[in-house]
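Q: What does the assembly look like in three dimensions?
Context provided by user:
Components: two
Sequences:
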Amino acid sequence: MTSATTAHSVVEPSATTRRFAGSLVVLYAVITMIPLVWIMLTAFKSPDDAISYPPKVLFKPSLEGFCNLFTTRSRQTPEFIRSLGPPQGMCDSIARSRNMVVAGPSNYVPRFVNSLIIAFGSTVLAVALGTLSAYGFSRFRVPLKDDLLFFILSTRMMPPIAVAIPIYLMYRTIGLSDTRLGMILLYTSVNVSLAVWLLKGFIDEIPREYEEAAMIDGYTRFQAFVKVVLPQATTGIAATAIFCLIFAWNEYAFAVLLTSGNAQTAPPFIPIIIGEGGQDWPAVAAGTTLFLVPIVVFTVLLRKHLLRGITFGAVRK
Amino acid sequence: MNELSASSRITYRAVMVRPGMARRIRGLSDRTLAWLFITPTIVLLLAINIFPLLWTIYLSFTNYRANRANVPTIWLGADWYQSILTDPDIWAAMQVTAHFVIWTVVIETVLGFGLAYLIDKKFRGHGMWTTIILLPMMLSPAVVGNFWTFLYQPQIGLFNYVVAFFTGRAASSFQMLGDVTLSPWAIVIVDAWMWTPYVMLICLAGLRSIPDYIYEAAEVDRASKWRQFWSITLPMALPFIMLAVLFRGIENFKMFDMVNLLTGGGPGSTTEVASITLKRAAFESWRTGYSSAFAIILFVTVFGLANIYVKALNKVKSR
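A: Here is the predicted structure of the complete assembly.
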């Protein structure tokens, strides 16, 4: 868009301005990336390399962190280890070099699976409920509409710990404590307020005439909603889904207070990975790196929707 | 698309919906449909947000303890509220919280708006770099906070190494998480690292919403770039900046995960924000009634402040 839009040239920044702005942003981005890169590097370090000083940028890659993440080990005497015969796979041989044997799998995989089920389950539910309500609020005359909308928003202002005790007591009574369903419902309720607000912004932008035309063609209101409004709102729904997913995937306070084993997600689990003599940093880094992968992939794939999500939903009213 | 195929599409759709169901849905008035659409959300929020909140209010007037359920519950009236509001430790925690909120919001707003302003210049590859900058806010504060404790280690941490490299001090001479003056800043740094992108995103949306013709008019009037920034860019982006401040303010008032993993409130109580005090009272000493009262005080505070702020925001918006 250079020659065709000469009328706009007065507002196009000059090449020097652009280069200057660009280099500042790149500098910030690089500084921002250092901790992230360091997590990934540490995941592939041996425990000795991870805690060496000065910090090592070049090192011999090791998969010990990943082995320690996925297994539990027990210390044994060298005689006992020798009596066992050949090691069972790579992790076992790494463990044996440190006078240990692999005792079994760790809890990381079940915790990660819980994260997947709870995050995606609550995102789907929150977006579904949010879309319906947003359409309702956008198109119909609802008594006390503004009060209801503010009520929905205000549920996000509560510190999670403030409601954690009654939720804990309530879940204990109805048998939802430490269950995935309980966590899905809880995260849905936290996310649905955001979903309603974001999606109402998007649906407000879709002209009513589209549905009216469809209804003149013989569609019912419900059919018009499904066949006309939903396809138009796809971008908004995608943006909302990202925000809900980010929250549910990363949530810590409720997870650490309300789950203990069965339904525990990865965020409370990763910090408590302890090795011999303190925190096992390569294992923690490996767990962190794997935990980041889904959300980073999701973000990069849907980054255009992300910007629109903020633009249209939260602000343009 | 010609008329024939359009009409056949409608017939096809009519066949897809079972006749009985179609009549039932058609029979629904808009009013009924509106309630059908809205009720599930309201019911869920009533069950999992409002009901617990009311329960918290009830508990805050009693001596109930979640770990001693068989002790008879006694109605205490406003005793807890009185003892909390006169407790110097609570006021200290509120002050710590206020410091965090102010510093993080100020730093994030200045950096976030600055970045958005630069990105809006549309340099080459701005899309890619924006995505990279956004990454920290996608991560779990707990997991990230936990990893930053590694970066902050005085003997082995990367952060101390880099600071030592540039300042010439010995890396082991300062403990970001163990020093009473440094540990609050350790948390502010991580929070700013994580959430500046969020402010940037909202500010960017604000900058992109300013129509070009306003700048063109300003150019015609020969307004300087400096003047354009103060008279057009900043005022027009202000509602967005204020919105970002509102969101970050509410979130950081509730700050829990990062503090819990970085310092746990220590050393001493220098980083003990309100959520940490609340968690200790509720889940470590199990003073359920007391912590419920504190939770209600916190909620009323956020709610009140947010309300005043939203009024100011609306005033700015309608200008």
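Follow-up: Residues 1-8, 313-317 of chain A have pLDDT under 50 and may be disordered.
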